[in-house]
Amino acid sequence: MAKKKDTSTSKNKKVTYGKETVYQGNGGETHQTAEQGYETLTTQQGIPVADDQNSLKHGPRGATLMEDFHFREKLFHFDHERIPERVVHARGYGAHGYFETYDPIPELTSADIFQRAGEKTPVFVRFSTVAGNKGSADLARDVRGFAVRFYTKEGNWDIVGNNIPVFFIQDAIKFPDLIHAAKQEPDRAFPQAATAHDNFWDFMSLMPEAMHMVMWIMSDRTIPRSLRFMEGFGVHTFKLINEDGKVTFTKFLWKPKQGVQSVVWDEAVKINGADPDFHRRDLWNAIQMGDYPEWELCLQTFDEKFADQFEFDVLDATKLIPEELVPAKPVGKMVLDRMPDNFFQETEQVAFQTGNVVPGIGFTNDPLLQGRNFSYLDTQLKRLGGPNFAHIPINAPKCPFHHFQQDGHMSMHNVKGRANYEPNSWGPEEGGPRESVERGYHTQPEEASGPKMRVRSERFADHYSQARQFYISQTDTEQEHIADALIFELSKVEKAAIRERLVGHLLHIDKDLAQQVAEGLGIKKMPKPPQAAVPVNEDLKPSDALSILKNVPNHFKGRKIGILVSDGFDAQLVADLKAGAERVGATVAMIGPRIAGVMTADGESMDMDHKIDGGPSILFDAVAVIGGKKGIDALAAMPPAREFVANAYSHYKFVAYNEAALPLFNKTGLPKRLDEGFVKVSDEKEIKRFLESCKSLRFWKRKDAA
Ligand code: HDD
Prior knowledge:
By secondary structure, the chain is α+β, with helices and mostly antiparallel strands. The chain folds into 4 domains: 77 residues, Cytochrome C Oxidase, Chain J, CATH 4.10.91; 300 residues, Catalase core domain (Catalase HpII,  Chain A, domain 1); 87 residues, Hemocyanin, N-terminal domain; 152 residues, Class I glutamine amidotransferase (GATase) domain (Rossmann fold), CATH 3.40.50. Helix content is 27%, strand content 17%. The chain contains 20 helices and 21 strands. The strands form 4 sheets. Strands 4, 5, 6, 7, 8, 9, 10, 11, 12 and 13 form a 10-stranded antiparallel sheet that branches. One of its GO terms (biological process) is response to oxidative stress.
């Protein structure tokens, strides 16, 4: 068809073919082109693209042509965007930062990172949930992964840990079974990101070694308020090796300077609906605001003699060493201060490996760790598609590296020149690298003898004593949460025999707990406890370090207050509250009946951060309700406003309020006599008092009043 008329503009090309008017571009006013100051769009081959809105067709309404190399390349690439998600820890969020060494510790380890005070080493961290798929919600009741990579001057060192210091199983051979049981059931593909189902508890109830971990996962540790408010643990016993080859055993612990804090279960369930990205958004916001989270790396070090005397085997990953017995000494701090430029490039493609150790750090024979050392390397091949994943920038060391490994899919840097083997006789200029006896990684020599046997040491046999110790180390509130969690989870189990078997194990841990759970589940006759391989040691002392609530940070830094206002509110009071919060390192968000145009008492119009149904109180650590006479009745008529207050109350939050807020409280059905968790604020002094209360994070005493 002959081209009749070309009415081209820089935005849109309008072309008339025969009777039809056709467009290049998208035909609309909004069409943008490089001529407006943007970079020129190209194909992957660098060819400038004239039209990214329309495929090449045979006539305006004809079939798309194979010849359209731009279209083909675009679709081809899109079709291949996904890589397999991690088989566990699929949902995660990463951040960059640095590790700053405190005092050098050459007496313990020759690891280069620990040799110079004040030296900063780049790190990348990825936090994750374990069971859910990549798109699952952040507040699943689940263990959190806490994987840290140090880009040291002597290579990459990864501590691939969790926010819990022990694990479910003792031997890596059971890992596939554990994960199959925990993830969605294979026939129905649910539940997603939840352990409240038959397969998980069936497996748990048949694995007494998991009982210590069961106590931890039923505690508030598995519903953290923020990724910033979690401890991290390397779990296994590792070796530190000094210049003379002397070995010291160690556990690695990360202690958040922000303190440890969790949500209550009802809050977790609701946050998953209101903001499934709650944890990642929180980390993103904190880092963008410059409120960089920090953790201290602590070592619990001990020698062979301690290991021999300790009641449990230090090679057993279902056991911990109480900090009261071996103190955790800080050796440096980690600061997270930068988000990745691109999520996929860095967070998704980072390939942590327990096998990544540097000179001065060594493995022990912990059978879980030994198995992990195979699994992490192996899994990267599947996920990242070839053996060259270390060529991806996030996985490449930041120190010089030279080796003769070559070729394979997606190879980015092969050796230069002729020599791709050694020994060779090409000399240092052209002959490539050689080993360094001085700087190289030396495995510490260790005696090993004995028959090949598929067995387990009897020192691994006590499965209940530390589970009991964990339970008795908790406050009453925390113990209640454990019982509630067990009742909730087991109530979702269809088979009564599984519920009963699990309660049987609890009898070894704490009889009252077993009783409460049995009652909660309506079990009439207490099941028999399974036979314990060794008697439970009831003499283990409570360890305060294992409790969250015994270690409340006593500050409100890094926390967030949601301020709910109604039309006619006192803007000065809100400004004072905001200023007070900022003084203690907290932030505020404004919530109102509308997102924009909420009126102050002075008749000013103010924009909000959230409209009431988009800013529920579950998203905040404490709340304030600053009513304005004019609009309080209208606000009280809104169900989400009443829910805001009711949830803050039932989640034990501190609430600041003014006189004008009372009609909303009445409509919500709060008790007439407000408890001490409610702080009336009308001036700076009272605001200070409110913020002082907030330091204890929750008003747990409200529980007793209920
Ligand atoms: Fe694992 C990922 C932590 C036992 C096999 N694991 C993975 C991640 C963390 C942990 C944090 C995510 C890393 C990331 O963010 O990319 N895993 C642990 C801890 C364990 C543990 C603390 C016990 C102490 N893991 C464990 C065993 C095996 C694995 C016993 C297998 C024998 N883990 C894997 C894996 C994953 C993984 C399949 C999946 C994705 C990946 O490695 O990179 O290889």
